[in-house]
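Lay summary. Proteins are chains of building blocks that fold into shapes, and those shapes determine what they do. In this project we predict the shape from the chain. Here is one chain we studied, written as its sequence of building blocks.
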Amino acid sequence: MIANLTRRGALAVTLAGVLAVPALATETIRAVVIDGYPARAMWVKEFSNFFIPEVDKRLAETGNYKIEWQESYGGSIVKPKGVLEGVKLGLGDIGIVTTIFHSSKLPSQAISAVTPFVAADARAVAKAVDEIAREFPTMQKEFAAQNQVYLATGVVLDTYQLFSRTPITSLKDIEGGKVAGAGMNLRYLEGIPGAVGVRGGLTDFYNMLQTGLVDHAMLWPEAAKTFKISEVAPYMLQADIGAVNSKTITVNKDYWDRLPDEVKGVLQEVAVLYRDHVAEVAMDRAAASRKAFVDGGGTIAELSAAERKAWADAMPNIAVEWATALDAKGEPGSAMLRAYLGKLKAAGFTPVRDWAAELPN
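And here is the predicted shape, written in a compact code that computers can read:
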């Protein structure tokens, strides 16, 4: 009896000791997120409304870590073209890099931009590009050279269209005109006689059109709605040039190396969810944005299938140029191009022009 009481007493003391040990405190990690575009830009808004809450929710499941977010958008730390450099230098820990501004430093990111007239679907393009980034080392190596870790690709536009200050119904109406664009899409104009590309950012297009610096602009309906393009360019030519990946979520490498594995894993998982979420939002808003454009006084004309083919056929094969340039650097450009187009064909998209068919053997 005495022995049993002794054992019970010892157990009680042990349990009391265990219960007296305080729970481990949640570690708070600070994260500065940067983008030069304003908070109203769709992908920025969805980063705030989807990415951050989803990360917070997943970290709260274990309670080991929480993130104290500082969001800096609209030029408060960097301009739109400065996100890549800003994350590289540690001005931001996490950035939404607009890759179309950095064709020399991130050439492989142009894979969808060099393949127009294939898929006007943000979801399919986002998934295909992101899979290429994970199956081939090239894209991640390019970001590593910029002191960054690649998380996921973002496609924020359903398809490029042409917006104009004057009525536009065919390619003839673009001939001899000045067209605003950003990055690789300016090369689409090389097949149109007299058309001249003028480089600019999305936030510049309104003023460029309003002042007559350009006659037309290549952008997508959701952006046209957000930035009130119908006020200065009330005519849209529905050419369905194609969806293009233009955003990538990256993390400063020095910051990444200090993060706990649990936090790294959550950021990687949520980045892929954000990729699909933003693409879905882009598609959901596409039809509504076209309606809003018309309701705002805009007029839409559809480019015929024959003219779309004529435009694609008149362009230089920028896809082959892109692939062979990467091949020459020892990167698998041709293999990436074939794999990417193969993914889109498997998803049900038939290219107006089979860019990969013209690759050298």
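What the prediction tells us: DSSP finds twelve helices and eleven strands in the chain.
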